[in-house]
Specification:
Helix content: 40-55%
CATH topology: Rossmann fold
Distance between the termini: 62 Å
Strand content: 15-25%
CATH class: Alpha Beta
Radius of gyration: 17 Å
Number of helices: 6
Oligomer: single chain
Structural class: alpha/beta
Shape: globular
Number of strands: 6
Largest sheet: 6 strands, parallel
Order of helices and strands: HEHEHEHEHEEH
């Protein structure tokens, strides 16, 4: 591990993790059917993540919800046409983080990620398989009520984590996320009906 990586992990990330833990009292599982503001963090620097991310968005998309996507891409900002990404996720507000949008410590600059830091999401989905510093540092600063993604020893701040085999791909993660969240949605709906019946 380089000196820069050591500082990233031991100083920058831990600082935000401490601040995040202070806010954990406000966190709770929120059924997908009751979420109206949903965020997605997607790492498109790995081309193999593209189709699984698009498929996941299509499966969770419904009328009346506000969707914002933060895409991490390998192209330079001067070379991109944002519409090429927006048409992949119709109906969503799409933002991109390019290589030049990072500072020396690999932290994305605030003016690029402000829309995500200021949004009080109900749920943010982390569609990434492994810990990635520039993604996780933003996640830890988010005002989201719930974080969901891949369960990992270095990602203990997730509120809803899915454990999948080490050799799994993103499609496996998104399939499992939907399966288990839908089951919890159904359980929540049954509990709500039961409570209503108890009132009468």
């Amino acid at each position: 591990m380089s000196i820069r990586e050591t500082i990233q992990q031991n100083l920058i990330l831990r600082k935000h993790l401490r601040n995040h833990r202070k806010d954990e009292i406000t966190k709770a599982f929120l059924p997908l059917t009751k979420a109206s503001r949903i965020g997605l963090f997607v790492d498109l620097r790995a081309p193999s993540n593209k189709n699984a991310s698009i498929d996941f968005y299509k499966r969770i998309k419904r009328d009346g919800c506000n969707y914002k996507l933060l895409l991490f891409i390998s192209e330079k900002r001067i070379d991109i046409n944002l519409y090429d990404y927006e048409k992949l996720f119709p109906g969503a507000q799409v933002y991109v983080v390019c290589p030049e949008d990072h500072n020396f410590w690999d932290v994305p600059r605030k003016n690029v990620i402000f829309q995500f830091l200021s949004e009080p999401f109900d749920i943010v989905f982390r569609l990434v398989l492994n810990p990635i510093f520039d993604i996780d540092i933003i996640l830890l600063q988010s005002r989201a009520r719930m974080f969901a993604g891949h369960s990992h020893a270095d990602l203990l701040f997730l509120d809803f984590g899915i454990d999948i085999p080490p050799d799994s791909n993103l499609q496996s993660l998104t399939d499992n996320l939907l399966t288990y969240i839908e089951r919890l949605d159904q359980s929540s709906a049954k509990a709500s009906v039961y409570q209503q019946n108890m009132l009468f």
